Amino acid sequence: MFKIIQHKIFLLAFGTVISVSVQAQQNLKLIYDKPAENWNEALPIGNGKLGAMIFGGASQEHLQLNEETIWAGEPGNNVPKNTFDSIRKIRKLLNEGQFEQAQKLSNATYPRAAPKDLNYGMPYQTMGDLFLDFKGHENFKNYTRTLDIEKAVSSVSYEVNGVTFRREIFSSFADNVIMIKLSSGKKGSLNFSIHASTPHLKKSIFTEKNQLVINGTSSSSDNKIGKINFKTVAFPVLKGGKLTSIKDQLEISGADEVIIYISIATNFKKYNDISGNPDVRVSEYVQSALHKKYDAELKEHIEKYQKYFKRVELNLGTTEQTKKTTDIRIKEFGSSKDPDLVALYFQFGRYLLLSSSQQGTQPANLQGIWNDQLNPAWDSKYTVNINTEMNYWPAENTNLSEMHEPLFDMIQDLSVTGQESAKEMYHAKGWNMHHNTDLWRITGIVDGGFYGMWPMGGAWLTQHIWNHYLYTGDQQFLKKHYAALKGCALFYLDVLQQDPSKKYLVVSPSMSPENTYMKSVGITAGTTMDNQLVFDVFNNFINASKILNEDKGLSDEVKSALIKLPPMQIGQHTQLQEWLTDMDRTNDKHRHISHLYGLFPSGQISPFRNPDLTEAAKNSMTYRGDKSTGWSMGWKVNWWARLLDGNRAFKLISDQLTPAPMETKGQSGGTYPNLLDAHPPFQIDGNFGCTSGIAELLLQSYDGYIYILPALPDALPNGSVRGLKARGGFEIDMEWKNSRLKKLIVKSALGGNARIRVAKDIQFKSKTGLTSAKGENPNLYYQVNAIKKPLVSDKAELKGYSIPETQVFDFDTEKGQTYIFESK
């Protein structure tokens, strides 16, 4: 039996903390018993701006270094000129059913390789590498290498000739520096040299004023000249011993303790301004850190990091596996019980987001901020037909809302640069972009007329603006970003075309990202994903204009277009159709299942509200299969959670927590020894996708309600979580035992109606304040945008979708109050 206790606790006013009787997760460290042999074993640290991969060698420490604005090229967009006539011809060919000819014309208009006067985006680039060489440390024992994600600190410890040597390394959240503290168990025993390298062609490495300096300029690529100038300094401070400067390295001998301050600065100020002074900046960064004692710097770093990280705790239970090193736990996950590794993986995703995306920095790119190459896979830029968006799926529901801000800043930039592509390529108002962008905020076609002919990037990115508003209720934020929502809606209002049947308005030309319906043909009109995206773009604008009391006339115009969008369709294989016509293949195993955007991250498909569409979506998932690239499996965890199949979602988590192959190509996915996701090669989106998916197993807030434990896997029967967020400003803590809810705490930041869905067998001892939910949720943050009734093929064989028995309750909340539901 359950009872409900209403605590009128004004958390903001009195700072009261509710004890949840949650056993805190004990293991928040990645642990290894040997140094990294390659980059995929090294450990990532970062503060949003500066990143490093730490190898932890005994005889040679190796830090591969990154700074978020070291990109090839220079300011400027990549919008092709004089292609609108081709766009119109492609539309005509598509309407006439001449699909191959349409694709050929698209490929000819936008070649696979960038024309001489154009570019397809610039690569994110490494700064280079810093090395610490320790002679005589080749024979070591009692080695331990860790990454403490509760403190954002990495450490190395080992013994040589009876002396213990220790290193502590972190990328400071307090200052723009990476700090390395070296110490030992015997005075005067620190003897090592510091040197560096960089792969950049324009470079200089030298010592001055007792510091090592690396100057360089980023690469030229396509039609752009490399104009990012950077300066890196490594400045050691000794306690005892002697520091000697040689031409391009520093020698340290007989020191008791050494602290090395590393900082990097560039001339980048904004996507259209590179007038910064890296010399001045890097000096300011180092001097600021030098004014603090090491312990004070470390303390401030941990406090600033934990302000966000410690908002959420997840305990899924521990087994003997926690005593093993992290690489072994990954290898054995499929054949052992290790629920704590799932919790660690969840928190590692949050650690990565905090480390790669801070207020005022660039957004996390394909590799976050960690990249060891000048020309990484897919340029390590921003791929917005899934990957960039997936990076930010955990931002709201895992209580890291502030880490979302760099993405919003980039959207603001793109809403300006994207006006050029909208006007030049489509003769349209508003703004748009295609499937890729970079530091310079390009919005034109990338990678040619097959992969690049997808004018929907802005449509997807702007969903994050609306989603942030739904979670926070921040009207000032909505007002600030309203122009981006409006401009996006204006673009689609202009470019929508009548389909051949004259029934619908569709986006043409476009594609279902990277997939084909005929051999080498993907270009089409009215894909299901496009229809779903425009549906959300239009509804977001309509709702925002109403909230802000803006543009009523335009809102009415958008409403008129909204009702002309095609409905979703269930095809001949009882699948959710990917295209406007029924061309899906049951043997299609493509990594993108873009037409399930409507299931997640959007909420247009709901098991309770749309069981037929849910069944069709499940069939599409089943046809595609499970094993795929890392990011694809991450998306599938979220989809199966929305399908309320926790066991299938957990299978995908298990597939993801499989050792990744060391090959750098393919679609086998998995996880590297350092817990980073493999496409392969490394892409960070799969980490973020799985973190989001684990949260979705425990809590979902869409379709008008907060669903508690909607898809709990059998493998996680006992556990607790604190601090997950739901839309409408609700924060949720819960405990469960034997797969049944034991305790629930709801904190209300905004007030308003809370509608909760729980399992049917949950009984409340007292229903004071609770009412059975009826009708639509009056809480505006839970408004459901009604979709059209789906069209169903005569050949489809719908069998009905089984959904769990649940009960739904409403209770009124007040701002700042906490409500506790508990069992006897």
From TrEMBL:
Keyword Membrane included in the entry's annotation: no
Q: What Pfam families would the database entry show?
A: Glyco_hyd_65N_2, Glyco_hydro_95_C, Glyco_hydro_95_cat
Name the source organism: Chryseobacterium sediminis
**Keyword Iron set for record:** no
Query: Which parts of the sequence belong to the Alpha fucosidase A-like C-terminal domain?
Result: 700-774
Q: Which range is the signal sequence, renumbered to this chain? A: 1-24
**Stretches assigned to the Glycosyl hydrolase family 95 N-terminal domain:** 30-270
Identify the InterPro entries for this entry. 6-hairpin_glycosidase_sf, 6hp_glycosidase-like_sf, AFCA-like_C, Alpha-L-fucosidase, GH95_cat, GH95_N_dom, Glyco_hydro_b
Task: Kindly list the GO molecular function terms attached to this UniProt entry.
Answer: alpha-L-fucosidase activity
Q: What is this protein called?
A: Glycoside hydrolase family 95 protein
List keywords of the entry alphabetically.
Answer: Hydrolase, Signal
Q: Per the UniProt entry, what are the Gene Ontology biological process annotations, in alphabetical order?
A: carbohydrate metabolic process
Q: Which Gene3D superfamilies match?
A: 1.50.10.10, Golgi alpha-mannosidase II, putative glycoside hydrolase family protein from bacillus halodurans
Where does the Glycosyl hydrolase family 95 catalytic domain lie? 294-698
